[in-house]
Amino acid sequence: MATRLTTQDASFYFLEASSTPMHLGSLAILQVPEAGVDYEELLTHVERRLPLVPRYRQRVREVALGLARPVWVDDREFDITYHVRRSALPRPGSDAQLHDLVARLTSRPLDRTRPLWEMYLVEGLSDNRVAIFTKSHSALVGDEGSLEISQVLLDPSSTPRPTEEELWMPTREPREAELVLDAVAEMIARPREGAATLKMALGDLVGSAVEVAGNVAAVVRTATASAPTSPLNAAISRNRRFATVHTELEDYRRVRRRFGCTVNDAILAVLTGALRNWLLSRGEPVTAYSTVRALVPMAVYISGDGSEEEVDLEADPVEREHVPENAERKVSSFLVDLPVGEPNAVVRLSHIAHATEAHTRASSTVTAQTLVRMSGTAPATLHAMGLRVASSLSQRMFNVMISNVPGPQSPLYLNGARMLEMYPVSPLLKNQALSIGLTSYDGHVYYGLNADRDAMSDVEVVTALLYESLEELLDACG
């Protein structure tokens, strides 16, 4: 029998609108090896890894009259060349041209009649580089058992790990009558879920997702109900701008050692300084008490006694020795008011460190919305889970989502090509003009800023101010 979408998956599927496509993006910059990067070889590589992500060969089929949540069915006309595409920049392509291309691709919704993902091989980059840009719908990834495709394509060495060839045979697609009868039986057996499905059909997507998927009261308790008024919250179009920032992980570790905070605290302090100066550059009123409320995923682990503790996954391994090897890791989310009204970088950091520490102390009794439990790190999936909790909250509760996910600190390869940089591209929610994703990888911290083209036409100003804010904090280290 076909697998039904979960309540949250269905809410993402129906939540999508022309101005808010709900796909998560991932941009990888690769160094071209001597043998080059061949499109046909990439197709073969992707096809061999598809059995590890079987949902990437399934499409969504809706049930008549909205009687139940849609189901996943095998795409009997699956065409790998439709999903893995080839693009090129005029040589030598610049990073700015690549960002423009990513922004245009991010603006386009996925084809709902096919599996909900696309991948682009972008050739023509300067300095003998290529890019891989992947779009995966949020309904496709983010569950504890779901992975984003880039996670299974990458290998820890230049020699791809062997995979068994699999002859894929699509299963029979259920008839309409079968889906309707199954939906009616489910509504009788589980009337509460049936009511939630009807709410989705009537447009109450967020309410139904919260009602069935879980209680977010713990996240709500960490701040008052409404976020401060901010230009970060505005009506948005379907068009996007994309910008990146590339920094060194050691810089944040230096701040951590000097001030006794975490790498997460240092990153939030850098973002706070940049947002402060961005508001000033726009002539926005900034007082000593001005704040920007951010929704922030945080890595924690579950100790043997069931309590939670923040774990700085980007710390040096020797500084994480207190974390038990068998500890269960997860990511939770909380709201934090970033003190953009504070002119002193060290005081900003202190405020943020106290806020995150207070959240960690309270987490054993007031557990925040759990996003994912998994061993190891899986950046794309964790970013998707951050989006899930953000969408379940009213957009009036926060100004911006900042998703900071630790990645591997050793090089990864895609079919022999070394990955140099990796940038998350988080989607925008309604009335959210900016979404910030960060991933640490191989000694660096990579920021991906996805912004509305009209409401955030000056997103490049934010990127420049991020570098300045980091330098200000490093200067304070002496």
From TrEMBL:
Pfam families: WS_DGAT_C, WS_DGAT_cat. GO terms for cellular component: plasma membrane. Its EC number is 2.3.1.20. Residues 5-266 form the O-acyltransferase WSD1-like N-terminal domain. The keyword Cytoplasm does not apply. Pathway: Glycerolipid metabolism; triacylglycerol biosynthesis; Lipid metabolism. Residues 330-473 form the O-acyltransferase WSD1 C-terminal domain. InterPro entries: Acyl_transf_WS/DGAT, O-acyltransferase_WSD1-like, O-acyltransferase_WSD1_C, O-acyltransferase_WSD1_N. One of its GO terms (biological process) is response to hypoxia. GO terms for molecular function: diacylglycerol O-acyltransferase activity. It catalyses: an acyl-CoA + a 1,2-diacyl-sn-glycerol = a triacyl-sn-glycerol + CoA. The keyword Lipid biosynthesis applies. Keywords: Acyltransferase, Glycerol metabolism, Lipid biosynthesis, Lipid metabolism, Transferase. PANTHER family: O-ACYLTRANSFERASE (WSD1-LIKE) FAMILY PROTEIN, WAX ESTER SYNTHASE_DIACYLGLYCEROL ACYLTRANSFERASE 4-RELATED. Belongs to the long-chain O-acyltransferase family. This is Diacylglycerol O-acyltransferase.
